[in-house]
Amino acid sequence: MRFTIEQRPEPSAVMRVVAPVAAIALTLVVGAGLFAALGHNPVAMLDAFFIAPLNSLNGLSELLLKASPLILIACGLAVGFRANVWNIGAEGQLIMGAIAATGVGLFYPNPDSVLLLPLMFLAGMAAGMAWAAIPAFLRARMNTSEILVTLMLTYVATLFLSWLVHGPWRDPAGFNYPQTAMLPPYALFAPFDDAYRVNHSVFITAVAVVVMWIFTDRSFLGYKMAVAGAAPLAARYAGFRESAAIWIGLLAGGAAAGVAGMAEAAGPLGQLSPNVSPGYGFAAIIVAFVGRLNAFGIVLAGLLMSLLFLGGETVQVSLGLPSALTRVFQGVLLFFLLAADFFIFYRIRRVGGQN
Amino acid sequence: MIPRLELRNICKRYPGVVANDDVSLSILPGEIHAVLGENGAGKSTLMKIIYGAVQADSGEILCDGNPIHSHNPAVSRALGIEMVYQHFALFESVSVVENIALSVTTPFNLAALSRKVLELSQRYGMPIDPARLVHNLSVGERQRVEILRCLLQNPKLLILDEPTSVLTPQAVLRLFDTLRQLAAEGCSILYISHKLDEVQTLCDTATVFRNGRVTGTARPKQTTATELARMMVGSKLPEMHVSPPVPAEKPMLEIRGLSAAATDIYGVDLADISFDVFGGEIVGIAGVSGNGQAELVSLLSGERLHPQSNAIRIGGIASGHLDADGRRRAGIAFVPEERLGRGAVPAHSLIENGLLTGHRLGSVRHGMVDRKRAADFSRDIVEKFKVKTNGVRAKAQSLSGGNLQKFIVGREIALQPKLLLVSQPTWGVDVGAAAFIRQTLVDLSRAGAAVLIVSEELDELFEICDRLLVICNGRLSKSLIRTQTDREEVGLLMTGLDGSVVANGGDSLALHD
After folding, report:
1. ipTM of this complex > 0.85?
2. CA-based nearest residue in chain B for residue A234
3. Of B60, B341, B368, the CB nearest to A219
4. Which CATH number fits domain B247-331+418-513: 3.40.50.300, 3.40.50.150, 3.10.450.50, 3.10.180.10?
5. What is the torsional sign of CA A346, A350, A355, B6?
6. pLDDT tens-digit profile of B117-143?
7. Other CB atoms within 10 A of residue A205 CB
């Protein structure tokens, strides 16, 4: 008796619903087994991972605070990914956005202007786009791999940030810590409640999700980009410009990442330090793919990814587990999510015995 | 006599289709046996099952009376079953003998192997120099390499899958001589084809297929073509109606001195091509594949631009610099050779694929897609062109080749082109759909549009074209009036042997067969 994997004639509608549920169930089983094998009470573990972070208003606030940049960046990246434009340097574009926004916030002549925050928003977006424009130009003109260029520019941005906060922008009153001065009050997003950190920048993410959905699902430009991604020869056959897809794909990701960087600086951080982002730019790539490059999926995937970040922190703090274990657990979940997705498009069939 | 090969009740299912349904056939030693059927009838699947490249779901295979257990290509070759695939598997950058050496499993000496190949090639009338590099060989010569590779194993059964689809008429006759000689020596030959005349010329017996089932066996030399076609198609073929052309006064397409270097190293340079296509007529470009057709087509469609804008004039306007979108605005529509991935996006629905070029007909407003109009547009095509599909939401890749081609042809005709450019209009399309597509092209031209067809099927070109041009080695022949030429003349022009074509790359690029 043998088994073969074969493509389904049509993607399975049932599996589309079952796949994520099954993936989460399998993760819980394997995770519980893993924790039990290590001598911990699995129920307490899973509680600490998935329930405790959501059990308080503060937990929900943190969940949104972390999910917001992930979703925002993933929306921008997905526009490019759909057209096979592989911007993996959102981290660098985020950093450049944070730098430009903080620069405006610190050095704008009138710190009490209501225009300060909008100006920072524009500066962050422009800087993210400018950083993404470099690989876009190189790819469109010289067919340079945008994968390499975006990744390498991330290191340039990280070191540039480091130089700024260690050098010219270091707060003179900051006891020599590598960080800038705090941004003035008008340069900060107001929190919904002073007790919690989540702030009004989540509305930017909400708008981005809607815009991204309209662009990819309703607009002709979004359609052209989907054609460019699914069948480049068909795009050329139809006369859709490849360079347009490259520019739009990279600039959308750059803009989203730049704004996310601005929202970090003008939100929970309030200043620049060498660690502006805990890796949002890279995690957003996973969010975009787990969310199947579609707006609604990205929102769910962003919340899940945020929960994994929080749950990981909780078990480290409350149960004293090494951070490596929480990353293993995150990996298990992503593995099952992607593996379960496979069965939407494929199935395993038993083949009759050969004689 | 014990059959060389016997199949009993072979079944093979793929998702959504039954490729072979209860197929039985038997082949005697020294017999040339045709497997006749339309594209998609399940012939190729059956051959792969015989060769062991694909496993049957059920049924039995017997070789010389002994059942074959746990089948695979290695078992086949041990039994003396060899297969020449439709698409060759040769390494272009090494020599003929080195390619052949790759399939020799016993220890060998390259010089001795070379001598053996030469000897075999002379014995079977397939002259070839074992030391030549494969990328310099014509398609006919490459096929010889594939056949020699099989002959080296002293096969008892040779399977050929549509071996003539890339050959000139003259090369086909030579291949047939070789096959007859092999059969006379006792080798059984299984000859897969959808071409009736070839089967009638060559084969002793024919098993006819339709939709994965055997619909009959016949002695093709004693059966009429009409009878065979009826077994193949299941009904009578529709008759073509080709009225005399009424060409317009001014050409719709003027090509003047078009030259272009190939874009990849195995491509063909186009040299000084000039011709006209008028509204109201169909012009066909014949030629063996790989003689510059792909380059010419992409320059005409605008997928590739030409620096000399004047070399290509559409409706009197210099158009070489226009991209595919610009050319469509100038009045061109285009049906490419590759349907999946170029003419249509495989994973997209028919609605989205209608939008690919049909977006200019009002289904996009203010940058937004009007989904209702887009759906109506595709539904119209599906109805008008009788496309068999589960509705316009079905993905392009779920349609059969013929139905997708009908959809693409319908979409391009919906653009109401002044010039329709069609590459391989009926490649891989079943007989019924092919007749429909050809009639559609004739009707379009008689309604006043200019139609230019690039095809490797001479029968098709002779059936519907008013004028023929032949492309060979990147050069175009003079224009031939269909009613004043014949296959012989076109065949000679295809090989460049009529003296009018001067080889431009020395010996290496010549296409002597």
Report:
1. no
2. B342
3. B368
4. 3.40.50.300
5. negative
6. 999 888 888 888 899 998 878 777 888
7. 24
